[in-house]
Design brief:
With 632 residues, this protein is mainly alpha-helical. The protein has 22 helices and seven strands. The termini are far apart.
């Protein structure tokens, strides 16, 4: 165990204690208010800072601090084009829908997004379908958030003897809880995070979520800016980092097992993750820990990465590599489909790719992702819920400007940090989603401030937590409000709704935990798929429902069904034909673009041939009293 291992742990525990304290205060706050409105919408009282940071923290999920950094690390500077439109997303998301959603939700008493659709189209079936889509896609969205948090807990606590003993107990006494492809340390970290986030979300409700989002928003910003400074200092400046990256080649990925001549002792023989070793003059790094069990002479295969750039090999082998207690047996090594034996591929688009010979970011994909982030962010139900809870137009205008600056201060530095991570932490290409916590420790140790790792790790942890709590609460509100209260038992008491809300939140957390036991390699792919699916399903019916009086129930149903069907179909075709998570992209345009176009076309056809809206529904949305004094 490192002598300074407790320093980041103590800093992180203090941060966690503050989060739980905010949940306790929030629980006291809503005891004197109506439960449903307070628990799910914070009594619609968000000010500028609260709106900007809860909107930003919810949007900056595990994708921003695990999936996005892993893609930067894997593909290089082309990610700057991939994320370019995120800085204008607040203008699209908050400017397009913010004022109308807030006014309409107050008029109709809507608490959830299905509430809005029910009031606009007077349709229980549409509200129920939207609840099902919302719940399913958000549950999938929660999986990478839980996965990131588990990786952080594993990185943070991995050196603790108590944590290692608990993980060993888990492996020996509950082996069925550890799926193939994960380890006991990961599963234990996942369980700890699940208990923490479910407890404070259940206990505190929307107000606790907003308060912690504000805290986590500041933590994310401070963490990223500190990492930027430490990174540039330790790589010798951006110019030096760019020169080194211009000579780099992508690594090769493979597996290796480890063998010994005589049976392993009772405690087994362990080789840690991130161990460097040489084999036949080739340099490798383990991407997983491995154990030769007692009495055996060979380990199971683990993932390894081979470094092939001569300058990198020379730099790493300048220091003495650790001596291994077992001999490596390297299996087949797989070169990159694009970029193998090519220098400078990290510096220009389309960037290297392990599986796609066209590279990571062809021009058409880059263009479609410019539209993706601005429009898909606008269509996220989690963001729409925030727009139903602020105080007035002045708050909205200031929040838009503040959030655009905030995102710029987050995403531009992340690109620089994790391009430079290829120099500071090479060889993590099998498990790139670990790069954020690895860099937090590496930068803190390099700066001689070990406790700072706890603050830096709190940034991605805050991103995961702020998204998890928001989405868990949204799923709960949709089920409790839109299914149970509206369709099954309208006369349900506040006490019953409270108990049902608590139980549903716990159940959602359990389902997300089970899903995270089988983590994907690239978290960002799951986030992009579910984020795009949510936007395709909800952007057209909500946007047109707010601004187009002729838009009717059939148009809304068809837009939702046809849009999501086209979107999912392109992913399914890609999975069947390509054998991986990549979708097919006709004309190099992302499935989100095609799904959104299909949704708009279906909305027009449904509106043309469907029944007209009733005057009662239109009055609430487009009546003469559409302007409220409090929004001046």
């Amino acid at each position: 165990m490192r002598s300074d291992a407790n320093a980041p742990l103590i800093a992180f525990v203090c941060y966690t204690a503050i989060v739980l304290g905010l949940a306790v205060l929030s629980n006291y706050a809503f005891k004197k208010r109506a439960f449903v409105s307070e628990y799910f919408l914070g009594s619609r009282g968000l000010g500028v800072i609260a709106l900007a940071l809860t909107f930003g923290a919810t949007s900056a999920s595990a994708g921003s601090f695990a999936g996005f950094p892993s893609l930067i690390y894997a593909h290089g500077w082309s990610l700057a084009l991939w994320i370019a439109s995120y800085m204008i997303f607040p203008l699209c998301g908050m400017g397009l829908l913010g004022k109308r959603l807030s006014i309409v939700s107050r008029r109709t008493g809507a608490i959830t997004l299905p509430d809005i659709l029910r009031a606009r189209f007077e349709s229980r079936s549409l509200a129920l379908m939207s609840t099902i889509l919302l719940s399913v896609l958000l549950c999938v969205f929660l999986v990478p958030q839980f996965t990131l948090a588990a990786l952080i807990m594993q990185q943070l606590l991995g050196d603790s003897p108590l944590y290692q003993e608990a993980a060993l107990w888990l492996q020996n006494d509950l082996p069925n809880l550890i799926p193939t492809g994960t380890g006991p340390e990961y599963v234990l970290g996942l369980l700890l995070f699940a208990i923490l986030v479910v407890a404070y979300t259940t206990f505190g409700g929307f107000r606790a979520v907003v308060w912690t989002d504000v805290l986590q928003g500041f933590v994310m910003l401070i963490g990223v800016l500190l990492m930027l400074v430490f990174t540039l200092v330790q790589v010798g400046g951006l110019r030096n980092a760019s020169l080194e990256m211009s000579s780099m080649q992508p690594p090769r990925l493979g597996t290796a097992s480890f063998v010994v001549d005589s049976p392993a002792p009772l405690e087994g023989i362990r080789i840690d993750m991130d161990t460097w070793f040489m084999d036949e003059e080739r340099l490798f790094r383990t991407n997983e820990a491995v154990l030769i069990p007692a009495g055996d002479t060979e380990s199971a295969p683990i993932k390894i990465t081979q470094i092939v750039t001569p300058q990198e090999i020379a730099s790493i082998t300048q220091t003495e590599l650790p001596s291994l207690p077992a001999k490596p047996r390297v299996g087949q090594l797989i070169p990159y489909a694009r970029g193998d034996n090519t220098v400078g591929t990290y510096m220009r688009p389309p960037g290297p790719s392990p599986s796609d010979p066209n590279g990571f970011l062809p021009l058409g994909v880059a263009v479609s992702f410019f539209a993706f982030w601005a429009l898909a962010g606008t269509g996220q139900p989690g963001n729409m819920i925030r727009l139903m809870a602020f105080t007035g137009t002045r708050t909205l205008r200031r929040a838009i400007a503040s959030l655009a600056v905030y995102f710029s201060l987050i995403y531009f530095p992340l690109i620089i940090i994790f391009c430079c991570a290829r120099l500071l932490a090479p060889g993590l290409d099998h498990t790139p989603d670990r790069i954020m916590p690895v860099m937090a420790y590496l930068l803190s140790d390099g700066a001689g401030i070990p406790w700072m790792a706890g603050i830096l790790i709190a940034a991605p942890f805050a991103a995961a937590m702020s998204t998890v709590d928001s989405f868990m609460l949204m799923i709960t509100s949709s089920i409790v409000r839109d299914v149970y209260q509206q369709s099954i038992r309208p006369e349900a008491t506040e006490r019953l709704l409270k108990r049902l809300s608590y139980g549903t939140t716990m159940l959602v957390g359990l389902l997300a935990t089970i899903g995270a036991l089988y983590p994907p390699q690239f978290l960002q792919y799951v986030i992009v798929f579910t984020g795009g699916g949510l936007a395709v399903a909800f952007l057209t019916p909500v946007g047109l429902g707010l601004y187009w009086p002729r838009f009717n129930k059939l148009g809304a149903l068809m837009s939702m069904v046809v849009g999501i069907a086209v979107y999912v179909l392109l992913y399914l075709i890609g999975f069947v034909t390509l054998g991986n998570a990549s979708p097919v992209r006709p004309l190099e345009l992302d499935p989100f673009i095609w799904g959104l176009l299909a949704s708009l076309l279906a909305a027009w056809l449904g509106t043309r041939y469907g029944r007209s809206n009733t005057d009662r529904a239109l009055e609430a949305f487009f009546g003469r009293n559409d302007h409220h004094a409090e929004y001046d």
